[in-house]
Design a protein that fits this description.
The complex is a heterodimer of chains A (388) and B (315). With 388 residues, chain A is of the alpha/beta class. Chain A is 34% helix and 18% strand. The chains are: A alpha/beta (388), B mainly beta (315). Zinc ion binds next to loops of chain B.
Chain lengths: 388, 315
């Protein structure tokens, strides 16, 4: 028996901001879930299972938040699962939910990811003072900045490219009412003159800390037929992992990322991603990761990714728009960031992205990564049901 | 088995928590010696109150005030209180159904011993002298002979002057940490100013620091290999923001350094050269500080830079 086709029929996000002091964590996730149900025209009773994800428990210090959130997400009497893959978790959570529908375990699944960074301490949660070890010298930016320099050296990229990505994503965010950073006065000069935090990474080229949640309703063919709005169809989805550190690890273009993309393209029968994919929502927490992932995901040959960015190909009106929503650079509730990529890809092919809609987007890729570039999750969604 | 190091590891952090409307009313109420519950869709009064109905998932906002007296529904004796528990003398953990409530609240009962505690006993709240809007505003429960209230709890607006909207919840975890056999040997060698890794018997790669196993081959490693002391900067960044609890002046260079003979880079600080003159391929050597377990930083050796092709696989 072939897999059940999976449709995205509901999407809900909170307005992402620096701090939501007005709601509890339960209140935050509830807001996104209710919006997704409204979009799908469904109620709590229509949901068969709930799959949630967030960053490590230490971030907010709530151990096993899925237990405390069962009431808020209408999960009582239903299966509730938690997925846990660091920064990629929003993507893997959506894929676990999609697999439950594809395997006909459940017909309609609510999937949700969140982070309340204002109440968390990501730095503390990730950098414990381990005895006998030298203290970490540099923080998250310091972890990734040397890999950016390695990319620049390997690709021969001019040092101006990072600013172009940050400027583009923050301009796109102005068209997305849910995005955290809305800087109407931003200019390219301001991005370029922002201080270097971890040279070669500028302050303006790093992601913010956000409070937010994102929810989706996934359902089967019969559920899609009842949807009040056009669904997005899942044409392919995959996850891959590799160790954080090993001899021969390529931090600039990890093998697990290449393998994950290849698996998704095989499922979706994509042979030329650059021409066959209309929009990409990729996980870019530091601006230089756009050209790096363009290569890793097969949109450009090795060393050529920055040329697409520099030529404007990834702009909202370019022929491969990347992060029309404004991306992680404009909105980063860590655990939710991956799911926002997946949801924004789905909004594009549903034609429901509003002002940041890519005209006629028929196929879009959602991408997430996490840990020390060790977890990857991606899906490809289309406006039409998958063939067969 | 060689000596394996171990040391205590205490992880402690004060998390902040926004309360939302229902928990805000509940905790502010405690500050005012008022216990609030919420009426669920089936009429049951839940204490402590929750934001969403456990059965229907509907939003719950119908607050009611319950009595400060109640009945113990079950209990467990705690003969040896631990740090930060509500009482520092032996006490009973109790579930108390307050008069007017349909569910029980977890707290502690001040009683002389387990013989003085029974399911069904009547108790009342002993309020803390100083109340701030926290569950600890209830200092504990104490025995109190009385008849259960039969009356319906009255509605409450949940509104108070100067409501508490957030709390701080400290979290503390106590571990004993051991770095294991391979890292213990590595750390001990560092005391002799030697850097010792381990070679994988399968792929022959040399891991520094060693983890006792090869992450790609999944086999144990045992063969010790001394590497360095010199190495090559494979990549780096210039850190311009001062990290908390770290006594290093900015800017400084944080680099990945492939020690000669190692098959992956380790991380370290580069000094002894202006920060803006550090480059990929720079040859460096360790500088040790007296009595320290670790290399303090690396400095240039003065050798010509390594050719990119000789280290590009290690970037
Ligand atoms: Zn090996």
């Amino acid at each position: 028996m072939p897999e059940e086709p999976v449709a995205v029929v509901g999407i809900g996000q909170t307005k992402h901001v620096a701090a939501r002091h007005d709601v509890s964590i339960a209140g935050l996730v509830r807001e996104a879930a209710v919006r997704a149900l409204e979009d799908a025209g469904l109620g709590w009773a229509d949901i068969d299972a709930v799959v949630i994800g967030k960053a490590p428990d230490f971030f907010e210090g709530v151990m096993m938040p899925e237990l405390y959130l069962a009431d808020a997400l209408g999960a009582v009497g239903k299966p509730m699962l938690r997925v846990h893959t660091a920064g990629s978790v929003g993507g893997s959570t959506a894929l676990v939910a999609a697999n439950l529908v594809a395997a006909r375990v459940h017909r309609t699944v609510l999937t949700l990811a969140f982070e309340k960074q204002s109440e968390s301490n990501a730095m503390w949660g990730l950098s414990l003072p381990v005895p006998f070890q030298q203290p970490l010298l540099a923080g998250a930016g310091g972890f990734f900045a040397p890999h950016v320099r390695a990319y620049m050296r390997r690709a021969g990229a001019p040092d101006t490219v990072g600013s172009l990505v940050a400027y583009k994503d923050r301009r796109n965010a102005l068209k997305n009412p849910y995005a955290h950073i809305h800087d109407h006065d931003l200019t390219l000069e301001k991005v370029q003159s922002s201080p270097m935090l971890w040279d070669p990474v500028r302050y303006s080229e790093t992601c913010p800390s956000s409070d937010g949640a994102c929810a989706m309703i996934l359902t089967d063919r019969a559920g899609a037929a009842r949807s009040p709005h056009p669904p997005a169809w899942v044409h392919g989805g995959a996850m891959r992992s590799e160790p954080t550190l090993f001899a021969g690890k390529d931090f600039v273009s990890p093998q697990a990322g290449k393998d994950c993309a290849a698996d998704v393209y095989r499922q979706a029968r994509i042979t030329d991603p650059r021409r066959e994919i209309d929009a990409v929502e990729m996980y870019v927490p530091f601006s230089w990761y756009e050209p790096m992932w363009l290569e890793n995901l097969g949109f450009a040959d090795e060393g050529e990714g920055w040329k697409l960015t520099e030529a404007g190909v990834t702009e909202l009106d370019g022929d491969l728009p990347v992060n029309p929503s404004g991306g992680v650079l404009s909105t980063n509730p860590i655990g939710a960031s991956g799911m926002i990529r997946f949801a924004e890809a789905a909004l594009q092919v549903r034609g429901r992205a509003g002002e940041h809609q890519v005209d006629g987007a028929a196929r879009a890729l959602g991408h997430a990564y996490g840990g020390g570039s060790q977890f990857f999750a991606m899906w490809l969604v289309g406006a039409e049901p998958p063939p067969g | 088995m060689p000596d394996v190091l171990s040391a205590p590891l205490v992880v402690e952090f004060p998390f902040t928590r926004s309360l939302g409307p229902v928990q805000s009313a509940f905790l502010t109420g405690l500050r005012e010696r008022t216990v609030l519950g919420v009426r669920a869709d089936n009429g049951t009064v839940l204490v402590p109150p929750v934001e969403y109905d456990p059965v229907t998932a509907n939003e719950l906002r119908d607050l009611v005030e319950v009595a400060p007296t109640g009945t113990v529904t079950t209990w467990a004796w705690n003969p040896s209180p631990r740090r930060d528990q509500p009482l520092d003398t032996p006490f009973a953990w109790v579930l108390v159904r307050l008069d007017g409530a349909g569910t029980a609240l977890l707290h502690v009962l001040d009683a002389p011993g387990p013989d003085a505690v029974r399911t069904g006993m009547r108790v009342r709240i002993r309020w803390a002298a100083t109340r701030v809007g926290a569950i600890t505003d209830i200092a504990c429960f104490e025995p109190y002979e009385s008849e259960p209230h039969g009356s319906e709890p009255a509605s409450h607006s949940g509104e108070f002057a100067e409501p508490v909207t957030g709390i701080v919840t400290p979290a503390r975890l106590d571990y004993v940490h051991t770095p294991g056999r391979a890292q213990s040997a590595y750390i001990k060698a560092l005391e002799e100013r030697r850097t010792v890794g381990e070679r994988c018997p399968s792929c022959r790669k040399v891991y520094v620091p060693p983890r006792g196993a090869c992450p790609t081959c999944g086999v144990a490693t045992a063969e010790q290999v001394e590497v360095g002391p010199r190495g090559t900067v494979t990549t780096f960044c210039i850190v311009n923001i001062k990290a908390k609890n770290l006594d290093i002046e900015v800017p400084y260079v944080y680099a990945h350094i492939a020690l000669d003979g190692a098959d992956l880079a380790l991380h370290g600080r580069i000094a002894g050269i202006p920060y803006d003159q550090v480059r990929m391929g720079l040859r460096v050597e360790p500088v040790w500080s007296e009595g320290a377990r670790h290399v303090d930083h690396y400095r240039p050796t003065g050798e010509p830079d390594a050719d990119y092709d000789t280290y590009k696989e290690l970037v």
